[in-house]
């Protein structure tokens, strides 16, 4: 009955997204819990944004399925925006919160997106892949080549640009030594194999499945390649309005995300099975579990902040952000530490223990 209710909610709210993609104003934010006011936690219904097929959204999915949001006293509904744009959904007020790749959020935040990040969830998610017969053995070898990405502003493209810059390749707009070409994520492996592109920067599970199916070489794996392996890729976020007007709800959501991520670290096989059974993702649960095991599910509020700082500074250095942008100010205005939220959780004898 609960699954039927969730599916009905998804249908209604997804229709609402299609009818309401209009810009809305953003409130102030920054460090601290924001303004008081609005409905109480008991009255407010949190609108949680979820994209179908996102394996790395496991903490969000597990928090819903394992009841961690309910235990935090949050009333919630799931908004499945399918293949839509999470930034557009947030800007339209169709969703209040969610999880996503920090690399894709920084530039929209610079442009006024009403989002604040609240914690780091895990590392991993993205790979840069090439054919074994390509003659490309390092990121430096990508000079003069073509890379397939799902979006020029997406997190995978951001990861590729950061890696290319570190390898000494010119990626400036006027004289880029690498060409980025947009392909749907599921089409990228075929584009690579038929020679349409020389490399692909793509997320899991497509990345790992393509690596195994086509016996591809991995140039970058953000789960294992430094400095990315020590940096949170996925973060939890809430709207500025939620942070300002309902900080108790935003804090409860963040605690639930931290708990879910900590639980996945202890139970990756069960987590993968839940994802498939609840129809969040498709595929073989055992194969999906192996991908989850390659990530570091060590959730951390401070880790999310540090990832935002690292990515924002790199994007300023490689001129993705505006010359006039003050990175320190951007970070200050787009991350919130909530009262009553620990840095993380450990699981001891089956119980969550706060990590300060």
List the total number of helices.
14
**Strand residues, percent:** 15-25%
Instruction: State the assembly state of the protein chains.
Output: single chain
Strand order of the largest sheet: 7-6-8-5-9
User: Would you list the SSEs in sequence order as H and E?
Assistant: HEHHEHEHEEEHEHEHEEHHHHHHEE
Global structural class: alpha/beta
Mean pLDDT: 87
Count every beta strand, where a strand is a DSSP E run of 2 or more residues: 12
- Radius of gyration (CA) equals 20 Å
Major β-sheet profile: 5 strands, mixed
Describe this structure in words.
This protein is of the alpha/beta class. It is 40% helix and 18% strand. It contains 14 helices and twelve strands. The chain has helices at residues 2-19, 58-65, 68-71, 86-91, 102-110, 155-166, 188-193, 206-214, 240-245, 247-266, 268-277, 285-294, 301-317, 327-333, and strands at 45-50, 75-80, 97-101, 115-122, 126-130, 146-149, 179-182, 199-203, 217-221, 234-239, 344-348, 351-355. The strands form four sheets. The protein has a five-stranded mixed beta sheet. Strands 3-10-4 form a three-stranded antiparallel beta sheet, with helices on both faces. Helix 2 (58-65) packs across helix 10 (247-266), helix 5 (102-110) crosses helix 13 (301-317) and helix 13 packs antiparallel against helix 14. Mean pLDDT is 87; it is low at 1-38.
């Amino acid at each position: 009955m609960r699954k039927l209710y969730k599916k009905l909610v998804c249908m209604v709210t997804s229709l609402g997204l299609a009818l309401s993609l209009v810009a809305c104003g953003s409130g102030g934010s920054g460090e601290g819990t924001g303004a008081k006011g609005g409905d109480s936690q008991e009255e407010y219904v949190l609108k949680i944004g979820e994209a179908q097929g996102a394996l790395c959204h496991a903490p969000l999915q597990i928090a819903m399925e394992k009841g961690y949001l309910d235990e935090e006293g949050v009333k919630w509904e799931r908004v499945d925006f399918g293949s839509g744009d999470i930034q557009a959904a947030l800007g339209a007020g169709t969703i209040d919160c969610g999880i996503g790749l920090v690399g894709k959020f920084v530039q929209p935040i610079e442009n006024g997106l009403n989002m604040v990040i609240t914690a780091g969830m895990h590392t991993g998610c993205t790979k840069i892949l090439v054919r074994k017969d390509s003659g490309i053995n390092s990121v430096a070898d990508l000079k003069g080549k073509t890379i397939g990405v799902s979006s020029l502003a997406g997190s995978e493209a951001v990861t590729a640009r950061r890696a290319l810059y570190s390898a000494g390749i010119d990626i400036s707009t006027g004289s880029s030594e690498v060409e980025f070409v947009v392909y749907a994520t599921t089409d990228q492996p075929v584009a690579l194999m038929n020679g349409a592109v020389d490399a692909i920067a793509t997320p899991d599970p497509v990345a790992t499945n393509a690596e195994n199916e086509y016996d591809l070489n991995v140039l970058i794996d953000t789960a294992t390649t430094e400095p990315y392996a020590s940096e949170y890729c996925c973060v939890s976020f809430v709207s500025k309005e939620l942070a300002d007007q309902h900080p108790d709800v935003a804090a409860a959501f963040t605690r639930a995300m931290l708990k879910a991520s900590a639980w996945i670290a202890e139970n990756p096989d069960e987590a993968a099975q839940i994802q498939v059974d609840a129809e969040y993702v498709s595929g073989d649960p055992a194969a999906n579990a192996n991908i989850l095991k390659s990530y570091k599910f060590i959730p951390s509020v401070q880790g999310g902040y540090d990832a935002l700082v690292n990515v924002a500074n790199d994007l300023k250095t490689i001129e993705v952000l505006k010359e006039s942008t003050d990175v320190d100010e951007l970070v200050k205005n787009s991350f919130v530490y909530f009262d009553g939220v620990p840095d993380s959780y450990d699981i001891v004898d089956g119980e969550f223990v706060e990590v300060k």
